[in-house]
Design brief:
The protein is α+β, with helices and mostly antiparallel strands and 86 residues long. It contains 2 helices and 2 strands. Helix content is 34%, strand content 16%. A two-stranded antiparallel ribbon has the order 1-2. A hairpin with a 7-residue loop joins strand 1 and strand 2.
């Protein structure tokens, strides 16, 4: 089932990013479909009792190298072939 896959990805995000909790958001209101947002809350995040959309976060832009590292880390944790295109 889809929810099992979503839960597996959420658990992986929690482990990889050492999140204290994960917010799940299911949307599909403009076009009939569904897509999920899985938002890890870190120990250093403030206002974790508020909806994630109401908390301002300082924008972070990762370098291409750091982004590639994170993608590979998540692929490995999810047992996805590292040679599979991103």
């Amino acid at each position: 089932m889809v929810i099992d896959d979503v839960a597996h990805v959420a658990q992986t995000l929690a482990q990889v990013f050492e999140a204290k909790k994960i917010n799940y958001e299911l949307l599909g209101n403009q076009v009939p479909h569904m897509h999920w947002y899985l938002i890890p809350w870190l120990k250093t995040d403030s206002d974790s009792l508020k909806p994630v959309w109401c908390v301002l976060h300082k924008p972070v832009r990762l370098s291409s190298e750091r982004l590639a590292e994170r993608v590979q880390l998540l692929k490995s944790a999810l047992c996805i072939d590292p040679n599979q295109p991103d």
